[in-house]
Amino acid sequence: MKYSFNKISRREFFKRTGVVSGGLILAYSTPALGKTNEPIVKSAELNAYVVIQEDGKILIYSGAPEMGQGIKTSLPMIVAEELGAAWEDVIVKQTPEVNVEKYGRQSTGGSYTLYRNWNLMREMGATAREMLLGAGALLMEIPKSELEAIDSQVRHQLSGRSIPFSELASVAQKQPIPNKETLTFKPREDYRILGTSKSQVDSLEIVTGIGDYGIDTKVPGMLFGCYEKCEAVGGKIVNANVTEIKQLPGIVDAYVVKGNGKPNELMDGVGIVGTNTWSVFNARKKLKVSWDESQASKASWSEFKNFAEEAAREESEDKITVGDINSVLSDPQNTVLESFYEYPYVSHLCLEPMNCTADYRKGENGNPDHLEIWLPTQNGPRFQKFAKDFYGLEQDQLTIHIKRMGGSFGRRNTNDYVSEAIELSKRSGRPVKLTWSREDSMRGDFFREGGFNKIRGVLDPQGKLIGWDEHLIRADYPGKPGFLTGPWPSAFPFNSVDNVRASLSTFRVDTPTGAWRAPYSNTHAFVSQGFIHELATAANRDHLEFLIEMMGDPRWLTPGQINALNTERAIGVLKKVARESRLQSMPARNMRGLGLAFYFCHAAHVAEVADVTVTKANEIVVNKVTAAVDVGPIINKSGALNQVEGSIMDGLSTMVGQKITMENGRIEQTNLDQYPVLRINAAPEIEVHFIESDYDPTGLGEPALPPLAPAIANAIFAATGSRVRTMPLTDLGYTI
Q1: What pTM does this model have?
Q2: Which of 42, 86, 456, 622 is the one with CA 20 to 30 A from 116?
Q3: For the structural domain made of 301-347+447-732, what CATH number should be given?
Q4: What top-level class would CATH report for the domain 222-295+354-435?
C-alpha cells in the first residue's frame, strides 16, 4: 500500500482548517472524587489543563501540593505517558491558585493522592492524545487508526512520516473531545516513561537554593511578622508591653490579638510586625506578656502514665468484639501471654517552620474585602471553608497560591499559622509574611499522641493464635478526629483472629494532637507486630511461618476494598523480604540479630527485616534494613525508592530517641538539642524490593514507616533476648 501526503505550507494549513496558530490548551472534564473505595468516575467537574506550546514544550499543571513526596513529578508522568510525550519536552507547574471547580481536588494526604488521580491522569493524557491523532489524520489525509503518538509527535508507522505536537496543536483544539468510555490506555509493556527513574521536576531549583517554598515568598511592599502565644494552651492575654516594642528599630507595629480560644483557629497572642524578620525576632525577645492561665492546659505526661497503669488493671469500654474471647482466655488448655507497651507523643518536626504570607485588602467604595495568601499547605480547599466560616469570605473574595512545603507529615493540615498571618495583615493594611521560629513549631505542634496498650494473646495447644485481647489507653483531646485514637476494626490482626476484643480507655490531655505520618498505624504496628513475635517465640515457632499462618487463604479481607488487606499480597512481601534478607538461612550471631515485621496501611503491603547489632555498652547499630513493598505498578522508581528510604529513616529516628513530654501544660522539648534527629552516620544500608502487582498504584509516603519500629525491636530480641516494649529506645538505656 502506498501513502502520499499533500505538501502544503503551515499558513495554508491553518487557512484550510479554519484555526489560528498557537498552542493547544486542553480543558478536561474530570470527576469530583469521593471516598477512596468508591468508583473514581462520578460527576464532571473542570480539573486540569494540558498546554502544548508552539516551541514544542508541553506544560502540564499539577494540582496536588508538593511536600517532598514527589507527586508534582509522578502525576504529570502519567499524563505524559498516555499523551505520548517525550519527557524532556515536559514542563511542570503548580496550578496558579486553589479553585476546586476548575482544578478539582487540590489536596494531598493519607498516601492516597496517586491512587485517587491514577485513572484521572490517564484519561487526561489519553484524551489529549486522541485529539492530536485526529488532527494528524486530518492533515495527512489518512485514517487515525494508522497513526501513533510518540516522542511528542504524531507518526505514521508505515511511511515513517511524522508531525510534531506543536504543529498540530491548533487544529487539535478543534477536534471533538472523545467520550471517556471510548478511551484506551497503554498496556504496561509499552510504557516509555512510567516505571523509569525521573528526578523531581524542581530538583535543580531545590539544590541551587532557588526553590520556591512558602518561606521564600516575596510580595511587593510586604512586612514581616511573628506571633507570641501562651506556652500553656488556652492561656488568655492580660497585657503586654506593646508600646515599648513599637519603639524598637525596624518595628512597624505591635498589638494584642484576641482569639477564639481554638488552637486550630486563632489563640490569644501578641503580633509584631516589622521591616525584616531579624528585627521582629529580636523585638520578640524583649516582649513581656502577662497571661491568665486559669483555664489553660495543665497537661502532664507523668499523670497520663499514672492513669495508664491504673486503667490497665480495670475493665474498659469494648470497641471491637469478634467470637468469644472470654471462652478461649479461660480454657486451661490454652496458653495466655500478656504484655504492656508504651509510646510517647512525637513532633512533626518539619524542616521548614510554619509560615504564611497574607495580603488582606479591605474593600472600598462598596467593593467586598479580598484575601490573597501564599500558603504551604496540604489542603487548600480546607482553608477555603475556614475562610468562609471564620472570616465570612466567599470563594471569589479569596485567592490561594499553593507553595511547596519543606515537610508536613500531616502538620500543614491546620489553620493556626494561616489565621495569625491574616490577623497581622488586616491590622497592618499590607502584605505580611508570618514566620514561626523552631521553638514555635515544636511547642505549637499538633503532636502524634502518646499511649499505652495492654495486650493478651491466646495460643491453642498446637501453638496457633486463636485469641487477641487488646486494651488501648489513649489521650483524649477535645475535638480530635476519632480515627487518630483507634482501634480500627480493619487493622491487622483484629481482622485475622477468630476471637478478638479491643477496648479503649481515654485520659483528658489538653495538648493538641493531629495526624502524624501513618496515623494510628505508626503506633499500632509497633504494638501488634512486636507482640506477634512474642507469641511466635512463646509457641516455639518460626516467626515468618506464624505470620503467614495468620494470613490464611488468599483473599481480600474486605472484598473489593483497596483499603483492605489482601492476604496473598501480604504473604508475597513476607516471603520476598525473608528471601532477600536471608532471614531464615542466616546463622545465629551473638549480639546480632534479624527482626521481621509486616504491616498493611494506606492500601500498601510492606514487610521489613532489620539487621541489628547491640554492643556491650547497649549501643544499637542498625546494619541494614531490607524492605519488600507492594503498591501496584511503580510510577517513578527513583521517587518510590526515596519515599521508602525516607520513611525508614523517619521511623528509625523516631524510635531511637524522639519524645515529647509536657508538664503543667507546657511542652518540655523545644528544639533539636532536646529532640534529636539521627545523623547521616547512623543511617543503615537500605535495600528495597518492589513487587509490581497488577492492581492500581497506591501511595508510598507513609506505609513503609510502621513496620520499622517492630522490626528493630524484634531484631534486638534476636540479638540479646531482651524485649523492647517502650519507645523511644533511649528510655530503655540504649544509644545509637
Answers
A1: 0.91
A2: 86
A3: 3.30.365.10
A4: alpha beta
